[in-house]
Specification:
Layout lengths: L1 E3 L2 E3 L4 H4 L6 E8 L1 E4 L9 E8 L5 E7 L4 E8 L2 E9 L30 E7 L2 E6 L17 E5 L24 E4 L2 H7 L19 E8 L2 E8 L5 E7 H4 L16 E3 L5 E10 L2 E8 L8 E6 L4 E6 L8 E11 L2 E9 L7 E7 L2
Parallel strand pairs: 4-8
Antiparallel strand pairs: 1-2, 3-23, 5-6, 6-7, 7-8, 9-10, 10-11, 11-12, 13-14, 14-15, 15-16, 17-18, 18-19, 19-20, 21-22, 22-23
Length: about 350
């Protein structure tokens, strides 16, 4: 078995080519301990994670707090997570570095301050970690915050360590030299998407069904944005091109045919809370409430070729709070291991799920 970040290639690769398993035969849960707290003070807003496996065992990960301008590295080993160095992703509104053109969004309550990224999802695809903002009006104030409409990526080596422009691995005290690229072009993609584009910039209330991103996965040049809303009996995934989103310059995304989102049937008022790449053509979907009140999370498997969806893990009644982040640790024909983070819990209350697969 070879694992590349959250991309999993199986020796017995025929399993992925076969029909999807009907469901999980069982789920074993392991609670992880956090040996060094996130954000230096037990963060309670962790919302995304992606990991790179290490040859000596364990994983190097990147975690996002949706109330911060920073992402934070972490290391997983023996059912423990240790928070590591922070990396600043965004700075201020007049920063000239983001690619593309600043979006102008007519949110219900006007303009807000340039504040946190509102990072909602993390993905890994060599040689980058990717972090995506919510791209939605502020849930509490209903205002447009430019800082939430950014996709960022951090260049890393094959062990997930940030590097400088010359490819040198950075020490924890030199993270200001990390290569961080940002782009505004995801807004162009979302506006042009069929079915969901009309909800871009709408209120996030259940009545208005406003669009917002909660998950991201990357495979080669393909990037997938999982939407918490809008939902209409289906949840949706919008696909884009990494190279187009990060093309040099400040031109908007080139005009292309209307993007048709991938519909995902998961239940009434159920949205996507995160995505994780299982293989080049398989995604895991962390599903939960599109709106308040919250509901127990579940996990679905999406076959991108067949556009077929299977519920692997039915609604979990034992969740501590809202499940917000998922990353794949390993996969075999009989078992998938994932790590779940929970928003609203100290340091994400990380749990490993060993999902036993029925064939």
């Amino acid at each position: 078995m070879t694992i590349i970040g959250s991309r999993v290639a199986l020796v017995t690769g025929a399993w992925f080519a076969a029909s999807l398993p009907a469901s999980a035969a069982g789920v074993e849960v392991t609670n992880y301990s956090v040996t060094k707290e996130f954000d230096g003070a037990h963060a309670t807003n962790l919302s995304g994670i992606a990991c790179v496996p290490l040859n000596q065992g364990g994983f190097r990960c990147l975690v996002i707090d949706d109330e911060s301008k920073f992402a934070q590295l972490a290391k997983i080993e023996d059912s423990t997570i240790e928070a590591k160095a922070k990396i600043q992703l965004i700075k201020k509104e007049d920063d000239p570095r983001p690619l593309g053109k600043k979006p102008s969004v007519d949110c219900p309550n006007g303009m807000g301050d340039f504040a946190e990224l509102d990072g909602e999802g993390v993905a890994y695809a060599p040689p980058y970690f990717y972090v995506v903002g919510s791209h939605g009006c502020s849930r509490n104030s209903g205002k447009f915050r430019l800082s939430s409409f950014i996709l960022a990526r951090i260049r890393v080596d094959d062990k997930g360590r940030p590097v400088d422009v010359d490819g040198n691995v950075l020490d924890k005290d030199d993270m200001e030299k990390a290569v961080v690229e940002t782009t505004y072009r995801v807004s162009d993609l979302l506006r042009r998407a069929d079915t969901v584009g009309e909800y871009f910039g709408k209120s996030l209330s259940a009545n208005d069904n406003g669009l917002n991103i909660e998950g991201i996965a990357v495979s080669g040049d393909r990037v997938f944005f999982g939407l918490r809303a809008p939902v209409d009996g289906m949840a949706y995934i919008v696909e884009g091109s990494v190279s187009a989103l990060f093309a040099p310059g400040h031109d908007p995304l080139p005009e292309r045919p209307i993007q048709v989102p991938i519909p995902v049937p998961m239940g009434n008022k159920v949205g996507i809370r995160d995505l994780a790449l299982l293989s080049d053509d398989k995604l895991l979907i962390l599903a939960g409430a599109a709106y308040q009140p919250d509901m127990p999370y579940s996990i679905f498997l999406l076959d991108l070729k067949e556009k077929a969806t299977t519920e692997l893990v039915t609604q979990r009644q034992d969740q501590p709070v809202r499940a917000e982040g998922i990353t794949v640790l390993s996969a075999m024909p009989q078992e998938i291991r994932v790590l779940i983070l929970f928003d609203g819990a100290l340091d994400g209350a990380p749990q490993e799920l060993r999902i036993q697969l029925s064939q």
